[in-house]
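Task: complex structure prediction.
Instruction: return C-alpha cells for all chains below.
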Amino acid sequence: MAEPRKGRASGIGGIVTARISGGPVRSLRARYPLLVLLGQRIALSAGLLLAVSLMIFLGVEALPGDFAQTYLGQSATPQAVANIRAELGLDQPAVSRYLDWLGGVLRGDFGQSWASRLSVSDQIAGRLGNTLFLAFCAAIVAVPLAVGLGMLSVLYRDRFADRFINVLSLGAISLPEFFVGYLLILVFGIQLGWVSFPSTVYAGMPFGARLQAVALPVATLVLVVLAHMMRMTRAAILNVMSQAYIETAELKGLSAMRIIAHHAAPNALAPIINVVALNLAYLVVGVVVVEVVFVYPGMGQYMVDAVSVRDMPVVQACGLIFASVYIVLNMVADILGILANPRLRHPR
Amino acid sequence: MTARGIPVGAWIGLAGVGLALVCAAFAPWLAPYGESEIVGDIWQPVGGDFVLGTDNIGRDLLSRMIYGARTTIFVAMAATLLSFSLGTLLSFTAAVLRGWPDQALSRLNDLMMSIPTLIFALVVLAVLPQEMWILILVMAVLDSTRVFRLGRAVAVDIAVMDFVEAARLRGEGTVWIIFREILPNALTPLLAEFGLRFAFSILFLSTLSFLGLGIQPPAADWGGMVRDNKDGIIFGIPAALIPGAAIAVLTVSINLVVDWLSNRTASLKGGRS
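Output:
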C-alpha cells in the first residue's frame, strides 16, 4: 500500500531516479519514460486534429448534394449555377481547396461566409469568447459540487443520502437540456421575474450584468453535467475503495474520513481528473443546445443557424473549433492522468 | 420470477415504456384529433375543450403528443437497431479477424469518436438532404461507434476462448464463428447496452428536432413540438414543456428498466455487478 503513495509524493523525483539508476546506453524511452509518454500523447492528438480537419472538409465534400444548386434553388439556370460555383471556388479540385482552407485556418482565417459574405473569423472571434465564458462559469460551479457530492455519496454509501443523490442524478441524466432550460426560464424568468430572458450579452457589457445574463444558462449546464460527473466520481472512488490496501486501513481502525482523504483520494485523483476533463469536453458540446434555448450569442447558435442555411464555411469552421476543443480537453485529461498516476509514469 | 419480485422503480419504468409503446402503436385510434388538424385557437390552456390545450397554430396538443410518440419511438428504434447491427457486425469481424482489418476499423472508430456526436451530426446534416431515412442513417452510423467499442471489447474476450478455438480447428468459417459462437455469448451485455443506446437515441433525435434539423414539419415529434411552442414560454404558456416532460419521462423509464434488468442478470451470475 505504501508504493503508490510514495510514488505520488515525489513529483519529478521519479524521472531523476530513473536517470541516475540507468546506464549510459539505455534508450530515450527508458531514461525519460514520462516525457516520451507525453510526447506520444501530444503527437497522437496532433495527428487526430489533422485527420479531423480532413474528415470535416473532404468527408463533407464526398457526400452528395450540390451547394450551388441548393443556394440558388431548383429553378436556377445552369449558367447561374456555374457562375456561383466559380465565385465560391467550387470549380477547383477538392484537394487544392482543402490545402488552401487548411493554410487559412493555420493563419486564423476561416474564409468567407456564403450567406452573409462576411469574414467567418471576425464573426467567430467574439462568439467564441462568449461561449468559453459560459462554459467556464458552468465549470467553476459544477466541478467542486460534483466532486464534493461524489465523495459524500461514497461516505454514506447505500444509505439514504447516497440513494437520494443516486435517484436524483439518474433523473437529471435523462433530462434533455432544452427541457431544463425552458423550465428554468418559465419559473425564474417569467413567473418570478428574477432574471431577464433572452440572455443577451454584448461587447462592453459590465461584468455584473453579464454574470446575471448567464445565470440561467449556467444553471442549466450545471444541472445537465453535474449528475454525470458526480456518478463517475462516485464510481472512480468506489473502485479505489475496493482495493486491498483500503481494507488494510479499515482493519487498522482508521476513521472513514481519514481513509477517504489520505488513502483513497490520492489514488482516485487520476480517474477523477479524467472524469472532470471528459465532462468539460461534454460541456463544450452541451453549450450548443443551451445557447439556442437562451438565444445566447455564442458559437453554438452561430453553427446551428449556419447548418439550417447550409453555409458550409461557417459550419466547417465551427465544427473544427468544437472538435479541437474536445480533442485538446481529452488530451489534457490523459496527460493529467499520466502525471497523477505513478504506475503510468514507470511502464514496465 | 413473480410480479412481486419486481422493484417499484422497475414497475414505474415498465409503465412509462408501456404507455409510450401503446400510444405509438395505436396512435390513429387513441388521438382525439388528426396529427396536423387545426381545431381551435392558438395556445388554449390545459383542460377545457382540449385536454392538454392547443399548440402554436391551434392543433390539439394531446393528439400531437400521441402521434409524436409514434414518430419519435419509430425513428429512435430504427436508428438503434441499425446502429447495433452495424456496430456488432463490424466489431465482431474486427475481433475475429484481428490483424489489419481490426487495426483499420478500430482507428477509424477512434477518429469518429474524437469528434463530439452532435457536432459531427450538425456538419453532416448541413450537407445531406432533409429526409427521414437519411436522419436515421446518420444517427445509426454515429451511434454505431459506441456499439463498436463495446462490441469489440466483449468479442475479443470471447474470441480467445477454447470453444472458439475448437470451432476454428474443425474448419468453421468467419461467418459461422461470428454468428454461432460469439454472438450468442455476447448477447447479454449487448442487450443492456441496447436499452441505454435507445434512451440516448430518443434524446439525440429530440435534440436534433429541437434544433430544426431532425424530423421536418408538419409531422409531429416531441423535440420538434418543443421548438414549435417555445415562443409561448415568454408569455408564460407551458405548452413547450409538455413534450419536453414526455421525453424526460420516457428516458427515465427506459433507464429504470435497464437498471433493473442489468441488476437481475448480474445477480444471476453470482452477484457480479
